[in-house]
Design goal:
alpha/beta, disordered N terminus
């Protein structure tokens, strides 16, 4: 195994130990928070944009809760159409309860210039009761090269994957696109979770 892999793997084991209670008690996807956490540059005071299906997206809900409970002064920009806004229990029981600064906007273009991290999500077809609503919503946000010109030069783009068409393929070559590396780290996180559960020391 290469040194880079061992360094990443060892670091993730430590991160899992640091957040063991969150991983144990949270019903959301267990690898999502430590995996995305690898891209946060200190978290304190960072402005994090969450875009797309914020109503049904479980990774969005768990990220908001984890970051609010673990770090102070995190700011959120919640980017979604009216129909897919973050649920009231996230807004009231987590964001407002902990006095977290956040804003809700509809246009991705308005949010991009002020973000440190953009977390894109797909509109989930399986969550809709009829095809017409899904077709109307599925292309609401498409991040392409033209929109990326509005974003800061050091902004990260994350995505839980798989994507549909909310991130254009042309963005994959942008150095700010970190979602494939995020998925790679996700493999290591799951390996670390298995070792932690089996109480295997490395």
């Amino acid at each position: 195994l290469c040194d880079d892999f061992l360094n990443i793997f060892s670091g993730l084991l430590g991160l899992l130990g640091e957040h063991a209670d969150l991983l144990r008690d949270n019903s959301e996807p267990p690898a999502c928070f430590p995996c995305a956490r690898c891209f946060y540059r200190g978290v304190q005071g960072e402005k994090i944009g969450l875009c797309g299906d914020l109503k049904f997206g479980r990774t969005v809900h768990s990220l908001i809760e984890a970051l609010v409970l673990r770090y102070s002064n995190v700011k959120f920009v919640l980017i979604s159409p009216e129909e897919l806004r973050v649920p009231s229990y996230i807004r009231e029981d987590i964001l407002e309860k902990h006095h977290v600064e956040f804003e809700e906007v509809e246009r991705l273009e308005d949010a991009l210039p002020k973000l440190d991290i953009l977390y894109m999500t797909r509109v989930q077809k399986e969550r809709f009761f009829n095809e017409e609503d899904y077709v109307r919503m599925k292309d609401f946000y498409i991040l392409d090269k033209q929109k990326m010109e509005l974003a800061p030069k050091d902004m990260y783009i994350l995505h839980p994957l798989p994507r549909v068409n909310e991130i254009a393929v042309e963005v994959d070559d942008d150095p700010r696109a970190a979602y494939f590396k995020q998925a790679q780290y996700g493999v290591y996180v799951r390996m670390a979770l298995i070792l932690r559960l089996l109480e295997v020391e490395v």
